[in-house]
Structures are given as C-alpha cells and as structure tokens.
Amino acid sequence: MSELDVTDGFDVHEYREGFKLRKETRETMHLENRAGYDCPVCGSPFEKLFASEKREHTFQSPPGPFCLVRTDDQLLLFTHS
C-alpha cells in the first residue's frame, strides 16, 4: 500500500477513503487504517492513527509498538500490531 506523506503536514481528507473515523473532537481524531497505509516513520502498515492539534497529551500505553511524528501543526501517533 502507499505510505502516508506527512512532509507538509497531514490532511485526513487526502486519505479519507482509507480511514474509518472512530472518534473526533475539536482538536483530535482517532482513525482506523482500513486501506493498509504504511507508516511514514517505519514503513510498515499501521492499525490506528491518533492525530492531535493539542500541544500536550497524556497517553495510556498503547498495545504493541507505536511511532510518533510531529508536523508543524499536529502530533501523529501510529499504532502497530
């Protein structure tokens, strides 16, 4: 599958056909990777993506390995199995 391009930030609308929206607030989104997109950090397919425009977050440990990317406007957390 194709790798998400986050070079100039992440716009969910460019990839919306491959994601299922799980939860959304004004500043965050939880998405499920239905298209098998590859992670922009490690190149492997990821299961879920958490995107946030908030400056700070506290996370419970996600199960399995995860990757983080910081764009100019967002923090992106990719979870893998």
Automatic annotation (TrEMBL):
Q: Which InterPro entries match?
A: DUF7385 (IPR055809)
- Pfam name, any one: DUF7385
Q: Which domain of life is it from?
A: Archaea
Q: Give the protein's recorded name.
A: Flagella cluster protein
Protein source organism = Halapricum desulfuricans
